[in-house]
Amino acid sequence: MNKGRHREAEVGPRMLRGEHGWWFLGPGGIARLKNEHLTATRALRPAAERHLSEQGLLSTRGYQNYSLTVLTSTNCNLGCAYCFQNVDQDAAGGSRPPRIAYSRLTSDTITSVLDFTGRRMAESGMDRLVLMLFGGEPLLNPQGCRELLARAADYGLLRASMTSNGTLLTPPLARQLADLGLRDVQVTFDGDRPEHDRIRVRRSGGGTFDAIVANMAQVTAVTPIRCDIRVNVSHHNFEGIDALVERLADGLDPARCSLHFARVGDVGIGYGNQLKFSTELAGRFTRWQRRAVDLGFTVPRPRAHRPCQACSFKDGKYGAVVNADGTLFSCWETAGKPGWQVGTVRDGYLPAGQTEGRWITCEESYQYADEITVLAEFHDTVDAALLDYLSSTGRLRA
Ligand code: SF4
């Protein structure tokens, strides 16, 4: 971790070089631009700016909904070696790395979390709540998930999602959660089955690929819950990603799933990734994305820079991340880690002087050996290629 590197929230459009000119990604949407619309330094010429403004693409809408992330359990039934909640590698070389301290969401803490949330929403003039159930593995505390969802309804619950490893989400439990408003579950794959089963292992031993696919196939078939798939890409697994995309399409209903790829980074516990952000890797990301689109998965559309509601504003005005014991953290990647607390739901945020150096954003947690400009160029290349493809296949109107 790199304490004390807080950057102020940046809201801003992006300009990506596409096959036929430029892609403008503004707060209000996407537009295609020609070379003559830009100056030599990629600034908009006045006529282009006026046009985008008239189309509403430059307008920034303020945050409408309060974003609340709650850890329902800090425990996990898996032992992924790169987990940012590990405090070290498993010294015995097994699948039981030591984790952050155990904590489990109770009824009393839910009361405090929602009281705090109601106060913060009132102060910010918001009446809608977007809730994320988080862990550890949130479903190690199914009652905490159910109760929090049920009681959040009184706070204008608009949307609820969960980040889960997917191994415990059976259809009966999914039906209960869906009835309480859960609509999206994010699960992660660590490569095709052989690599995934070496990396995403149960603490008791054994792989998880088939269990996750089977659960998510059933859940998306019998509930309105959609499956958001994140594929972690590293030097351990990138050769198998083409096969993974095909296997996921065979085992799941692509129409009920989104799919995105992310190079996994190092959060400072000795799990490095030798895969560099390179032109060759960008080409692979592009190939995987295009195949996923062709197979019927939703591949998230590239967007303008949009700061995270929870961690990008030091006063927690638009959102909060709460550990299962009611402690506040600036972002979900520091949640539960000693020394990173920024307050409690009972007493509110600590004074700014006391949180200096602890208020980091999720983007800052990963240590990439690469320069930030290399990272930005990589994302721009991959995103432009996706927009080119969506446009050329009639899936994007800009
Ligand atoms: S499933 Fe998630 S919370 Fe559990 S060990 Fe793996 S990365 Fe960590």
Description of the structure:
β10 (319-322) and β11 (327-329) form a beta hairpin. α7 (241-251) runs parallel beside α8 (279-294) and α8 (279-294) runs parallel beside α11. The chain folds into two domains: 14-54, no CATH class; 66-307 and 362-392, Alpha-Beta Barrel (TIM Barrel), CATH 3.20.20.70. The chain is globular. The strands form two sheets. Strands 9-8-7-6-5-4-10-11-12-13 form a ten-stranded mixed sheet. A three-stranded antiparallel sheet has the order 1-2-3, with helices on one face. It has helices at residues 46-54, 107-124, 142-152, 171-179, 193-199, 209-222, 241-251, 279-294, 352-355, 362-365, 372-392, and strands spanning 14-18, 21-26, 29-33, 66-71, 129-134, 157-163, 182-189, 226-233, 257-263, 319-322, 327-329, 341-344, 348-349. With 398 residues, it is an alpha/beta fold. The chain is 31% helix and 18% strand. Iron/sulfur cluster is lined by residues 76, 78-80, 83, 85, 135-137, 165.
Please render the helix and strand layout as text:
Blueprint: E1 14-18, E2 21-26, E3 29-33, H1 46-54, E4 66-71, H2 107-124, E5 129-134, H3 142-152, E6 157-163, H4 171-179, E7 182-189, H5 193-199, H6 209-222, E8 226-233, H7 241-251, E9 257-263, H8 279-294, E10 319-322, E11 327-329, E12 341-344, E13 348-349, H9 352-355, H10 362-365, H11 372-392
Parallel strand pairs: 4-5, 4-10, 5-6, 6-7, 7-8, 8-9
Antiparallel strand pairs: 1-2, 2-3, 10-11, 11-12, 12-13
Helix pairs in contact: 7-8, 8-11
The protein binds iron/sulfur cluster (SF4).
